[in-house]
Amino acid sequence: xxxxxxxxxxxxxxxxxxxxxxxxxxxxxxxxxxxxxxxxxxxxxxxxxxxxxxxxxxxxxxxxxxxxxxxxxxxxxxxxxxxxxxxxxxxxxxxxxxxxxxxxxxxxxxxxxxxxxxxxxxxxxxxxxxxxxxxxxxxxxxxxxxxxxxxxxxxxxxxxxxxxxxxxxxxxxxxxxxxxxxxxxxxxxxxxxxxxxxxxxxxxxxxxxxxxxxxxxxxxxxxxxxxxxxxxxxxxxxxxxxxxxxxxxxxxxxxxxxxxxxxxxxxxxxxxxxxxxxxxxxxxxxxxxxxxxxxxxxxxxxxxxxxxxxxxxxxxxxxxxxxxxxxxxxxxxxxxxx
Length: 338
Hints:
By secondary structure, the protein is of the alpha+beta class. The chain folds into two domains: 4-203, no CATH class; 217-327. The protein is 56% helix and 17% strand. The protein contains ten helices and seven strands. The strands form two sheets. Strands 3-4-5-6-7 form a five-stranded antiparallel β-sheet, covered by helices on one side. The chain has a two-stranded antiparallel ribbon with strand order 1-2. It is elongated and about 95 Å long.
């Protein structure tokens, strides 16, 4: 197991690398488009940069209350993921409880503050910042309200929460316990709330916020289904095989399916389109083949991806190309066309 200074050094190196990466790609990271890769990078920024800074702030909270109650700080340590404040002084049990709680109080304030900013004052064209704030809030509250208290109780380290929930300060301990339970309960209720889920999706780019006068999701879905239907009909018009066309609405998108039989195989081309609510809006073309005699397992493959929202005319060449390609499959050896 790593010693704390070694682990702190590893995290420090990761923090520097994360900051360099963030600064280098800052224009793309903090624009209106927020991809899955950029989410991972923001998660690393929260874990390797913001979280260590919050550890420093935690120890600063302890140091501030030591000074408030007339104590003397004799040692201070910060190792990115862990810190300590060694102090001496003449304290009452309540003062010791407040000194112990002050560090976690800083983390709770930071976590709640980050959440309130992301929720009530979101960066409308910067979903990465909102995501970073939500992730930081979750990390801060999880560490302050769950991880640290459990680690203290199970680890036998006689840390802050052992002092907070001391028999020497029953009234203080009860009040902190009520606050603790209230914050945990509120966090669970908020997380399970459909309103929060929808608001989180909008603020972090998982779901685009529609402006007044824009098409509703249902209207856009119908329009996209129509585009796929027209493209499939145009692409199969006059083709050598008889086909069956089917279009359907799906959760978060639309799909057109072209089915036909040739060479002893049931074949299908599936054209799936996401809606503009998806920050990574695109159309995917998939293929499937299954023998009539069912002796061989069905085979499926993704053939192409077209970013954005293509028109029916733009989709027709793709569909025609892949109709011929899939019709040539023998079900045993399949290659992707150039």
